[in-house]
Amino acid sequence: MEQGILNIGIGExxxxxxxRDMRIDEVQFDDDxxxxxxxxxxxxxxxxxxxxxxxxxxxxxxxKKVQGLWINLDSKKKLAANSVLAxxxxxxxxxxxxxxxxxxxxxxxxxxxxxxxxxIDNPLEPTYTGGIPD
Length: 134
Description:
The chain has 134 residues and is mainly beta. It has one helix spanning 84-91, and strands at residues 15-28, 34-44, 49-52, 54-58, 64-68, 104-109, 115-118. The chain has one domain. The mean pLDDT is 90.
C-alpha cells in the first residue's frame, strides 16, 4: 500500500453545486391528483450533472426532515410563503427560481445519501426533540 494513502483524511459530506437550469415535473398521484415539482439541474465541481427536487426543512414540531420543492401557489398566483420552495428561495436570498441560475449552492445528503438542498442552517446536526439529553 502506498504510504501517502495513510495520511488522507475524511472528506466533507456536502457538495458544492452550481444551478444550471430548472424544469417543472408534473407528478401523478395514486388518487389521480397531480402536482408540480421544481427540479434544479445542477453541475458538481467535477462537472457531473445532478437533479435536485428536495430540501431539508424543520417541520412544525421542530423536527428536521426532507420535503419536495412543490410548486404551491397562493390566491395571488405567487409561491405560497410557507411552502418549502418559498423557504428555499428565502434561505438563499433570492425572490424567484430564475435568480438561482448560475448560483453556487451547497448540497447535503438526505437519510438515503441522495443530494438535496436545505432551507435551514446545519441540516446534518442532530435536532433536540425533547426528553433528557445523554
